[in-house]
Amino acid sequence: MAGEGVTASKGRARAGSAGGLKVERVWTTEGVHPYDEVTWERRDVVMTNWRDGSINFEQRGVEYPDFWSVNAANIVTTKYFRGAVGTPEREWSLKQLIDRVVKTYRAAGEQHGYFASPADAEIFEHELTWMLLHQVFSFNSPVWFNVGTSSPQQVSACFILSVDDSMDSILDWYKEEGLIFKGGSGSGVNLSRIRSSRELLSSGGTASGPVSFMRGADASAGTIKSGGATRRAAKMVILDVDHPDVEEFIETKAREEDKIRALRDAGFDMDLGGNDIVSVQYQNANNSVRVSDEFMRAVEEGGTFDLRGRLDGAVIDTIDAKGLFRKIAKAAWECADPGLQYDDTINDWHTTPETGRITASNPCSEYMHLDNSSCNLASLNLMKFLKADGGFEVEKFVRSVEFVITAMDISICFADFPTEKIGETTRAYRQLGIGYANLGALLMASGLPYDSEAGRSVAATITSLMNGVAYRRSAELAGVVGAYDGYARNAEGHKRVMRKHAAANDEIRPTGLVATEIAREATKQWQTGNKIGEKNGWRNSQASVLAPTGTIGLMMDCDTTGIEPDLALVKFKKLVGGGSMQIVNQTVPRALRSLGYPEEQVEAIVEFISEHGHVVDAPGLKPEHYPVFDCAMGERSIAPMGHVRMMAAVQPFISGAISKTVNMPESATIEDVEKIYFEGWKLGLKALAIYRDNCKVGQPLSAAKSNKATEAAPAEVEKAVEKVVEYRPVRKRLPKKRPSSTVSFSVGGAEGYLTASSYPDDGLGEVFLKMSKQGSTLAGVMDAFSVAISIGLQYGVPLETYVSKFTNMRFEPAGMTDDPDVRMAASVMDYIFRRLALDFLPYERRAELGIFTAQERAAQLRAEAEAEAAGVDLAGMAASAPVSAPVDATTTAPEPAAAPQVIESATQVGSSTELLEAVLGKAADAPLCFTCGTKMRPAGSCYVCEGCGSTSGCS
């Protein structure tokens, strides 16, 4: 097994006699600065637009270690480097970024008495630097954005607000939410204190109800988004199951989804971010119903349930519990909302019950604590602790958690907050959220199926160890700098929850040597930590969550995010020189070796996966090992209950909750959703959300679903110019029978058909365009436009004249298309004439217009890459990062070589999700990135773009 367990007093920073922490080295070498241990290189980061090749970001000569992937360097440069590009103030080296953050933490730690001596502070600084440099962990994005800059020192990514039953409070909610959205973060709120639409106002009228006030908040979020944000405002809205308006709340988004469908069919731009989507309400929030044990027992027993007024608690209505539960499941089946939050479970694990109940969560449901509070996050890269022999670096993991928790707590000492109420609560309760990424990769590399007792055993023991060390360190910090301000009032409640965590740890029945060793150390940590806590109290009311780890997961070159399994067995990879390729996940050969396969079999299996994208019938692979390679999507995807069981395995060892959406196949029934939601309650989860494939009609998810091939016209056609002997054009009519082709297309979610008819031997002569419903205004205008273009062509107007006039014309609908040759279009007109040019103009004329097929662009990129690489064999290189993005960056130095399991060039896809779509032949349910236009990949209950690091709402 991976090393000996550590005791409470050995191998860790500890409280010194001078009152501060004595810090010992773990990763660093005395007398050698972490920066001097690695090889640095200069790179050029150039991000380009997929559609027209224009540059939207450029910074040359940035400095990174040679083992950082192209993608990680690109994301950090574009997202986290501060200062205007092109000015002396602009950061240009990873050293500057890490120093800006770490030195701020060290200075604050010294100022507030965390360290026994300056030497201890220096070791702390070097250890944090080493871990960040080597991608062992990362702080959440606000730390990288703000710490050490002239901006407010906001370090938190998660916020919870509150709203009372008064207009002043409701308007404050709008304002506070807006301030959080403006800063790029998200928040959650429970509206259950607002009286229902079935209750009276003091004036005698009827109250509006919380759903009505949700409209104003939703419009506010949408307006701030359109005012400059590059992603949706992220928010969570919660209503208790006993609220009289709960049925209206449940059905709100499902009804709006019907509206989206009707408007989209009428030709309106209902794409996510489209011009017309703003007319649809409630699209900027995740909705969750807060259910009680009483309600769930009534569902189980087939009983009734009371809905109670907010003013006096009087029963307003009595409903059938199963019927209401059915409505929840039906709405979630239709549009993925609402999710469920299990109120009694949440508050049973609440450390500060005397201060107030936990009523809400952040948008992704992992942070759950007091109203008007915040939480700063950090995540460990679990793959950094996996030993070559399959063991786990227990001691290094323990000590790394200590460093990270200490740093996170220090940050609260100097942090700024969006509102004073949030600042007061956070400083008084000091909520932290340590977590991890790469669990799925760790399990696969270890030869363990994600959906297995052995896989869940390792996950549970690692999570318990992490949380036990975090709380033990928190108890030690309480002895150095004091317990959190609210501890005295909540001491008994806090100690009770610590005993619950320890008891849950004792119930783990580890499977295998690795899990056994980790469980043994976790038990020591809980016993020691609770003993210290009995004496000192704890510095933090909360220690851990499992967050999506979207952008920071890419920064750490993680294969998988948060608690998620791997997305697929093949991925999209960016190369030196700006090229790209598809590669087989590097965890696959490692897993095969862990399972005992000889090298020649490993190579054969990997080659099979490269061709087929899955392991079924791979040569020499035992069927009993197939589950090791099950992924979130693909030929063998993990069953929904497999995800739920994994969440249940780790939930007892998380202070907060888990950001994760359980994906269900399109064929899933309402009864299946009911079962998932019911089992989530039985298994002790705090929150659960589902997503049924293709249930959303308001997102651009169906582009690849039809998988219809676009029939191209002949590659070269002679120029059709009517020669005339008069001073007026002469119309050349098409014969009664003429060749034609029809192309179905989608631009920004608006679908249509283009039929192009040509002369038998002389080029394009007629165009018909069909969009929207027959008889609608848009359909009539398109018919008239088609006739006008067709007559012009028949009178001799060259096609290239139309192409030059109509390409780049901008109006809605616009955005991503389902055509691999024209990935993005500025308008329907822009798409149509680019498609016609590709089908009817020869290469030379198209080149003059800058219009190329995907294959032609690929050939150009390969030529450019070969020229820039100056003899470097790009096809034989696969850098250490597992996933990447569109062909949008270059670098001046090669990445370290890895096993070259390379599939043919993936020039027609821009992300791993799009690659998976190509392999499966159907669309993946994921939104498009607002920044670069490629399909994002799941990250917890959110999505992250592999190309630029943007997320759908979580930092």
From TrEMBL:
- Which EC number(s) does the record attach to this protein? 1.17.4.1
Q: Where is the TSCPD domain?
A: 735-838
Keywords (alphabetical) are: Cobalamin, Cobalt, Disulfide bond, DNA synthesis, Nucleotide-binding, Oxidoreductase
Gene3D superfamilies, per this entry?
Answer: 3.20.70.20
Please list the residue ranges annotated as the Ribonucleotide reductase large subunit C-terminal domain. 156-691
User: Residue ranges of the Ribonucleotide reductase class II vitamin B12-dependent N-terminal domain?
Assistant: 45-135
Please state what class of enzyme this protein is: oxidoreductase
Q: Which GO terms describe its molecular function?
A: cobalamin binding; cobalt ion binding; nucleotide binding; ribonucleoside-diphosphate reductase activity, thioredoxin disulfide as acceptor
InterPro entries per UniProt: RdRp_reductase_class-2, RNR_2_N, RNR_lg_C, RNR_NrdJ/NrdZ, TSCPD_dom
The source's domain of life comes to Bacteria
> Member of which family?
Belongs to the ribonucleoside diphosphate reductase class-2 family.
PANTHER family tied to this protein: RIBONUCLEOSIDE-DIPHOSPHATE REDUCTASE, VITAMIN B12-DEPENDENT RIBONUCLEOTIDE REDUCTASE
What role is this protein assigned?
Catalyzes the reduction of ribonucleotides to deoxyribonucleotides. May function to provide a pool of deoxyribonucleotide precursors for DNA repair during oxygen limitation and/or for immediate growth after restoration of oxygen.
The protein, known as = Vitamin B12-dependent ribonucleotide reductase
- The scientific name of the source species is Micromonospora pattaloongensis
